[in-house]
Amino acid sequence: MRKLRSLTALIALVFAPLAVGGAIALSAHAQSAAPSANAADAASAAAAAATANAKPTAPGAMQIVRGEYLARAGDCIACHTVPSQPMFGGGRPMETPFGTLYTPNISSDKTFGIGAWSADEFYRMLHEGKSRDGTLLYPAMPFASYTKVTRADSDAIYAYLMSTSPVHQPNRAHTLRFPYNQRSLLLGWRALFFRAGEFKPDPKQSVEWNRGAYLVEGLGHCTMCHTEINALGGNSASKEFQGGLIPLQNWYAPSLTSNKEAGLGDWSIDDIVDLLHAGVSNRGAVYGPMAEVVYDSFQYLTEDDVRAVAVYLKSLPGHSNEVDKSPKSQFVNEEANRLAPLGKKIYEAQCAVCHATQGQGKLPHFPPLANNQSIQMNSAVNPIRMVLNGGYAPGTKKNPMPYGMPPFAQSLSDEEVAAVVTYIRTAWGNHGAPVSVKEVNALRSAPLF
Ligand code: HEC
Ligand code: HEC
Ligand code: HEC
Asked: So which residues are the signal peptide here (predicted)?
């Protein structure tokens, strides 16, 4: 029993990296450690060849450029770099209820980084989740996804990391409490949730689809946020991509399936490409942890790769249980009726100037709220937090000067925030449920990032 409880607690470690996520979203604008932006452009030719089953390319400059591109796709920088500190020096804290993990130094430094590792050891780490000496890694390092990465791509990432400047900075020990500091617990987690294995292309699908699948399931590690985590801290395969609340961080990552109401079912491929590449689209803007994913990772990918991701996402089957269709209780209806008139008044006075009277937004800078899935989910944390804290879409190559939204935490009471969020979740045909004053109050104290 004790073991099981401890195992359950590992959930926190699985989530841990997510807690670090948003921290970069705002500071990212000032991040100085970013690799050269045009490396991605230069890499596009090489990347085109980097299909799942590509043969290893000749070692040398091309391989390093391709490795930089792939490291972008895997977003290694987000976790392994403290913003405005030397790249890949590690030391980024990840808070969990059981203590703090500090990401390791993965620069080319031979003493403190991975400069002394061989390409074989690096591949084993990505593929099996084991450090150089065989130590089992916590799944906060997304090796459960990276295991799909091909040997050739692993070698390219390795070559790139070896080409970066060594950072002579020792690792900080994790400060996890007993028994969570016992790595032997990971054996149980691995038996339940980890299967090592490279991505296998599906010959019945197009080259583009396979490329998208490879990126989404492998380097992109999208399931880490977009799949609900079960009680034992693993992603249940049957719920893959159906969306989930990111605990600790309190953001909801919506469904990516083709369910029409919850997922991407009635998005066009172009809208998905715009959202992921530019950060803004006809269907909404990215915000919170997803803004960071776009800032650090997606904006550097080629349009072809982003399109391949969209093509693959569009093929994910939707499920009827993704949207709660049960009739709303009388209490819920009364609450909606009570709050909506106040909400409408606030909306017209404070929000319509940017999001327009019918919630249609003012494109491309002010996202629509009508028919915007990311604010209608069963969980209302996203729109509540946006209203409380405001936000900026990420600055990207395609949208270098993003517009912002001011925070309303100071000017609106809990009741007023509940009212306006209830309004935007239920007006204009939106199918969200009303939110309570209590929910708003709880999120006021949520850490900003
Ligand atoms: C979501 C956060 C996150 C991302 C993204 C991430 N890592 Fe990690 N990584 C970690 C954490 C946390 C650890 C330490 C795990 C442990 O101590 O068990 C780690 C461990 C490692 C190690 C082992 C270091 C050692 O000394 O044992 C290597 C190498 C590594 N990561 C490389 C990468 C590469 C390459 C990428 C991108 C393809 C990447 N990481 C992406 C969080 C992340
Ligand atoms: C660190 C957690 C995290 C990771 C990793 C992540 N996402 Fe997200 N994603 C979110 C959150 C939270 C949202 C909701 C906020 C928003 O819409 O911008 C979101 C929103 C989205 C949306 C918009 C959905 C909608 O209905 O509006 C798309 C599309 C998306 N993500 C695709 C991806 C893909 C593809 C990947 C993998 C390459 C990925 N995400 C990885 C957290 C994440
Ligand atoms: C000054 C213009 C402005 C005002 C006023 C404003 N917003 Fe926003 N809003 C934005 C921008 C810009 C974004 C995109 C921010 C991002 O991506 O982080 C946004 C995003 C949002 C989102 C997330 C949707 C998405 O897809 O990005 C919600 C929900 C939202 N606003 C609700 C409101 C509500 C409710 C009010 C009034 C209380 C309001 N906004 C007032 C500009 C504004």
From this structure: 1-30
- Domains delineated in the chain: 2-194+206-314 (no CATH), 326-444 (1.10.760.10)
Ligand 2, pocket residues at CB < 6 Å: 18, 21, 216, 220-222, 224-226, 251, 253-254, 256, 272, 275, 284, 286-290, 293, 309, 373-374, 382
Q: Is 374 in the pocket of ligand 3 (CB under 6 A)?
A: yes
- 277 in a labelled binding site: no
Block residue for tokens 């590792």: 117
- pLDDT averaged over consecutive 10-residue blocks of the chain (449 residues)? 41 42 33 40 45 54 97 96 96 83 97 98 98 95 96 98 97 91 90 94 98 98 88 75 84 92 92 97 95 96 98 93 78 84 97 98 95 91 96 95 96 97 95 92 78
Nearest-ligand number for the alpha carbon of 379: 2
Q: Is this structure's pTM higher than 0.85?
A: yes
Cα–Cα distances (Å) from 137 to 13, 55, 126, 213, 353, in that order, read 11, 28, 10, 25, 49
CB-side neighbour CA atoms (13 Å) of 366: 15
Give 59's DSSP letter. S
Consult the annotation and say whether 221 binds a ligand: no
Ligand at minimal distance from the CA of 408 is 3
